[in-house]
Amino acid sequence: MLGFGNKGALPLEEFLANPTGFILIDVRGGPATEPAIPTSQSIYVLHIEEDPEGFERRFAAQLTKKPMLLYCSKGESSLFLLPKFSGKHHIRSLKGGMVAYLTTLSRLLHEHPYEDPGKKGDTMVKILKALTDRQTDETTFRKIIERLLRCAPNPKFRKLIRQGV
Fold this sequence. Notes:
Oxidized Rhodanese, domain 1
């Protein structure tokens, strides 16, 4: 059974090691289009803030099986929402939000040992596009993340994927 309560911020590396383990909610701070992690659902921050109980009820069945992970472009909005929930379900915020997500992915891509270093820039753009496109399926998304973590020069990332976090 899942732990209950609002657990605060989830480290980005832990999320990247298992991106399909959460109900992903893209907490949007406005109507403008922002990048979204594949499989995420976009919900305007004020709609959650106005009725957090209704939001929890809407996802109650799913929340008995999976924790929920809220994130936004800057990270503050999702963390701000956590205390508004009842604590009956396992709800967390992605530490740093979308900015940290893209920064970490860019760093992993920069450190990645490319087969053709001359095409590094093009490859990075294609991979970042795939990882921020809602149309990318979960299997493709997970394969990219696992390969990046497995090949990262930083042993901390390689250890996470071996542990199956």
